[in-house]
Each structure stands twice: as C-alpha cells, then as structure tokens.
Specification:
By secondary structure, this protein is an alpha/beta fold. Helices cover 24% and strands 24% of the residues. The protein has helices spanning 64-70, 85-100, 116-121, 148-155, and strands at 19-23, 30-34, 57-59, 75-80, 106-111, 129-134, 137-143. A five-stranded mixed β-sheet has the order 3-5-4-6-7, with helices on both faces. A two-stranded antiparallel sheet has the order 1-2. Strand 6 (129-134) and strand 7 form a beta hairpin. The protein is globular.
C-alpha cells in the first residue's frame, strides 16, 4: 500500500486523488486503488484477481475504519442484516447505484449481526441505515430504504 500522507487534501476529490482501500473478494488482501484508473481494471496485489467496483463491497468490524479513513471519495455504507426484508428490497437499487457511481463513490455493506462493534459505534438502531462518510467522518445519514433520488442526494 502506498503512503498517502503526501497526497493532496482529501476534500478536493479531484480525479487524480480518488484513492480507496478495498478488500479482494478472493484472498481478502487489502489493496489501495486509484479510482481514476478503473479503466485499467485493477487487480489484487497478492492473487492478481480483478477487484470489483461495480457492486457494494463487504466491510467488517476489522477493516471498516481502513475503508472509510483511506477513501479519498465519498463512502456510502449500507448497514443491513440478511433477515431484513427492506434491506433485501433495497439491494438491487444499491447494486445499480454502485455500478453507476463506480469511480466516484465507494459503496460498502456492513452486516450488523456479524459486525456488532461497528453497528454500536454508529448507534444503528434500525436497518437499513445508510451513512455517507467524507474525509473519514460521518456526513449524512438515512434510516429506512430510500428512493433512487434520495440515495443520490445523500452523496451529492
């Protein structure tokens, strides 16, 4: 992973500084990726498998902070549970949003049952809850399944 301490300020979100940390879905290695280079189809530094950016990526208690703090783009996190009907109903909308905004927004999913520490940290009392992070800090929050327009307005 590259040291980003000498890079421009995160609040600029310019094309040249769209860096994020993502976990490889194959080997679980954390990789720092420049979203400005998505056309180059980034690969895992360990196993060389393609890193997916066209869908929400799973986050856990162990790596959540790295994803949020390491992102130089807005991070949209869906706090959900597998048994939750509204969460399941919202999944296709979130998948489409992740595909459409690949390179501009990092979309994560965090299972609140499997990751209670992070859920408690952000006082998740109802699911689905969507939180947008900018510069590593909570910026906006939506409780309940949003419409497409509400989802887009959260990040803008």
């Amino acid at each position: 992973m590259r040291d980003v301490s000498t890079e421009p300020a995160a609040e600029s979100y310019s094309n040249s500084t769209k860096n994020v940390v993502v976990r490889c879905t194959t080997c679980s290695t954390l990789n720092r990726v420049s979203l400005a280079r998505l056309a180059d189809k980034p690969r895992c530094s360990r196993c060389a498998n393609a890193l997916p950016f066209d869908r929400p990526l799973a986050a856990t208690d162990a790596d959540f902070q790295k994803f949020v703090e390491g992102a130089l783009v807005p991070v949209l996190v869906d706090f959900y549970a597998d048994w939750c009907g509204p969460c399941k109903a919202m999944a296709p909308l979130l998948d489409a949003y992740a595909r459409h905004e690949a390179g501009n927004v990092l979309v994560l999913k965090l299972d609140t049952d499997a990751n209670p520490i992070t859920a408690r940290r952000f006082n998740i009392g109802s699911i689905p809850t969507l939180i947008v992070f900018r510069n590593g800090q909570e910026w906006k929050r939506q409780v309940g399944a949003p419409s497409r327009a509400v989802l887009e307005s959260l990040v803008k």
